[in-house]
Design a protein that fits this description.
It is a single chain. By secondary structure, the chain is an alpha/beta fold. It has 2 domains: 372 residues, Alkaline Phosphatase, subunit A (3-Layer(aba) Sandwich), CATH 3.40.720.10; 101 residues. The chain is built from 14 helices and 14 strands. The strands form 3 sheets. It has an 8-stranded mixed beta sheet with strand order 4-3-5-1-6-7-2-8, with helices on both faces. Strands 9-10-11-12 form a 4-stranded antiparallel beta sheet. Strands 13-14 form a two-stranded antiparallel ribbon. A hairpin with a 7-residue loop joins β9 and β10. α6 runs parallel beside α8. The longest helix has 31 residues. It is globular, with a radius of gyration of 22 Å.
Length: 492
């Protein structure tokens, strides 16, 4: 067995931070993820600073904040050129590195430091531009699926949209579901790996991101379950201009009760399906006698609002969208605290330095994230970030699109809408579902002013001109990529 430990990073797409039964979720059941948490540390206040797929993965794969990696919104087709990245550091230090599943980089076949990539990004609008290339060039799952079904199957055969909350259970055998595919390929990697080298395996699931097509057994166990109503804040009417009665699930709007029940059952079914497949992988990891020398980290790129406050999908700063699960499980042979819950504010940029630290590898000075390993060891950490600043451009919000910023310490949250200056303030300790906007009530003016000043510090000097004479400035033009990234990519 190699001297250095193996590392397995499991990332799912669009899973809410509260969708763990060990986190107290009233409906969904995740016994195998709970088991990982029971054997390690769960970070209860982990966030995605830029909660959409591309920007969040930039933080995950590079250890950089959004101001450093330059992606503050969603934009496809922007080249990834980060000379220091997570997989590259493992490869450079002799690890066998393998990515399986979703990358969401550009070009789509960019390996981002991995020795080998087996790719399945789900439905990517940019990647499925048939004028650029054949679909098989950017998706290893599709030719694999066609070999097993023996006909010209496509990812869209079931008629579900990749961002819709319509539900149709998987119509083929479960063994060829995309979730099973990720685990089957990961198990095959365990078979063919070089046993003389430590490995870094990135298992990247596309689900529970829509399409909502879990296996029937997973969907049906939630379809008729009693579910609490989604929280609706006293501020929800702010988003009424986005409501579309014909497509309420695309951004904002209230679904009819039967469609809401089906959407949540489909989403929870995906989570439970992933949970069972993680059990499958862990069993095989044990059969190869690797659990004693392998770190497991589980997280998501961002969450899903799933009807909270009549909102859907991601990008907004509310807990359903911005908070993510984060579990760090040490090897079975390593004595560390079990069933620990950490209240420190963590972010996806912290995953890279944490994994390097777990492997005993140096952490590059150029990255912004910090290792969470001292928390996992149960050590006293005297210096940690007092707050996190997050943001995302949101082009469908009037007036003319705007950037939405948030700052939080996990106990309180301040939100500022850069287009019209609208402010929100939530006491997360007393109101974790963010139903009461204390800024609107006017009863917490001092706390609002405190957090406003924190945001001013974060935004001072930004190219957008968000701050002038020590005050926040509204109506500034927004771009999903900062100047330094656009110049590097040749977009300006």
């Amino acid at each position: 067995m190699p001297d250095r430990p193996n590392i397995v990073l499991i990332c799912v797409d669009q899973m809410r931070g509260d969708c763990l039964s060990i986190d107290g979720h009233p409906v969904v059941r995740t016994p195998n993820l709970d088991d990982l948490a029971l054997r390690g540390t769960r970070f209860a206040h982990a966030y995605s600073a830029t909660p959409s797929c591309i920007a969040a993965r930039a933080a995950l794969l590079t250890g950089l904040s959004q101001t450093s990696h330059g992606r503050v919104g969603y934009r496809d087709g922007v080249p990834w050129d980060y000379p220091v990245n997570m997989a590259g550091e493992f490869t450079r230090h002799g690890y066998q590195t393998q990515a399986i599943g979703k990358m969401h980089v550009y070009p789509e076949r960019h390996r981002m430091g991995f020795s080998h990539v087996v790719l399945h990004d789900g439905y990517l609008h940019n990647g499925r531009d048939r004028t650029r290339h054949s679909l098989e060039q950017v998706d290893d799952y599709l030719p694999w699926l066609r070999l097993r079904t023996r006909h010209d199957t496509d990812y869209l055969d079931d008629g579900l949209n990749c961002n819709s909350y319509n539900v149709r259970p998987w119509d083929k055998e479960e063994a060829i579901h995309p979730t099973n595919y990720i685990v089957s390929e990961s198990i095959d990697f365990l078979r063919r790996r070089d046993p003389t080298s430590p490995f870094f395996l990135f298992m990247s699931f596309h689900r529970p991101h829509p399409p909502l097509d879990p296996p029937a057994w997973a969907f049906e166990q939630y379809l008729h379950r009693e579910m609490p109503e989604p929280p609706v804040g006293d501020w929800a009417d702010y988003f009424r201009p986005l409501y579309n009665p014909h497509k309420p699930d695309l951004n904002a709007g209230k679904l009819p009760p039967d469609l809401l029940q089906r959407a949540r059952a489909g989403y929870y079914g995906h989570v439970t399906h992933i949970d069972t497949q993680i059990c499958r992988f862990m069993e095989v990891l044990g059969e190869y006698r690797l659990t004693g020398n392998t770190w497991i980290v589980f997280t998501s790129d961002h969450g899903d609002l799933l009807g909270d406050h009549h909102l859907w999908r991601k990008t907004l700063p509310y807990e359903g969208s911005a908070r993510v699960p984060l579990i760090v499980t040490p090897p079975a042979s390593v004595k560390m605290p079990h069933n620990a819950t950490c209240g420190a504010v963590a972010e996806l940029r912290d995953v890279m330095p944490t994994l390097l630290d777990c492997a005993g590898l140096p952490i590059p000075d150029s990255i912004d994230g910090r290792s969470l390993l001292p928390w996992v060891r149960g050590e006293q950490v005297n210096s940690w970030r007092p707050h996190l600043h997050g943001e995302h451009t949101y082009h469908s919000l009037p007036p003319g699109g705007q950037a939405v910023h948030y700052v939080t310490d996990g106990r309180e949250k301040y939100v500022w809408f850069g287009g019209d200056g609208h402010e929100q303030f939530f006491d997360l300790d007393q109101d974790p579902r963010e139903t009461v906007d204390l800024a609107a009530a006017g009863s917490h003016a001092r706390r609002v002013e405190y957090w406003r000043q924190i945001l001013i510090q974060e935004l001072t000097g930004r190219e957008e001109g968000y701050v002038c004479d020590g005050k926040l400035v509204t109506g500034r033009p927004v771009n999903p990529c900062l100047d330094h990234l656009r110049k590097q990519a040749g977009l300006v």
